[in-house]
Amino acid sequence: MYRDIRSWASSVDMMIKEKPEYLVGGHTRPIIGGEKIIEVMTNYRDAIRFVFDKTIEGMNKGMTPDELVDYARLPDRLAEKDYLREYYGNVEWAVRQIFNAHLGWFDGNPTNLFSLSPRQEAIRMAKLAGGEAELLQQAQRAVKSKDNQWAAQLADHLIALNPDASEPKLIKAEALEALAENLLTATGRNYYLTAAQELRKQAE
């Protein structure tokens, strides 16, 4: 479900106009004091609007979601605020949501109009690697060297090739656990850990 970003920013504006003395947020610590609340809410609103405006600007330049993720990063003056850190939400996810809400699933790359299925792509990846056994070794090396995102992606290919194999699931579980350890966003971290737990159970 898409949360309308402009309405979100406008709702913060409405709260600012009320000049509150107490603010109890859903995902943050309570704030006491009108001056501090106005400062925090103004920066919060500005951050929301910046991400939206910058994403739309990039979309109008023909950027894909992957390109927009780097283009629409918060400026330092906002990103350095502790209360704007990505504890719950994530700027990258917001950028992708904005793109999808306005332009749909197609990212503009014609290659992605009719992509190969995960299994068909995995078959070709295994051939490029020199076989499924070599692809497995590459995944093992990636997780040992802490190249965890790549390890997880290689494990996905291996799981697509052989859904019943245990080793790729264990590799992916280890990679996800490592990714979770370094992720500030609680929702993403919890999803990594839950998925890893399920993979370990499947591998038993």
Automatic annotation (TrEMBL):
Give GO BP annotations, semicolon-separated: dodecyl sulfate metabolic process
Q: Report any Pfam family annotated for this entry.
A: Alkyl_sulf_dimr
Q: Which residues form the signal peptide?
A: none
The organism's superkingdom is given as Bacteria
What Gene3D superfamilies is this protein classified in?
A: Alkyl sulfatase, dimerisation domain, Metallo-beta-lactamase domain
Q: Can you give the residue ranges of the Alkyl sulfatase dimerisation domain?
A: 64-201
* SUPFAM superfamilies recorded: Metallo-hydrolase/oxidoreductase (SSF56281)
Q: Which GO terms describe its molecular function?
A: linear primary-alkylsulfatase activity; protein dimerization activity
Protein name in the entry: Alkyl sulfatase dimerisation domain-containing protein
The organism of origin for this protein: Anaerohalosphaera lusitana
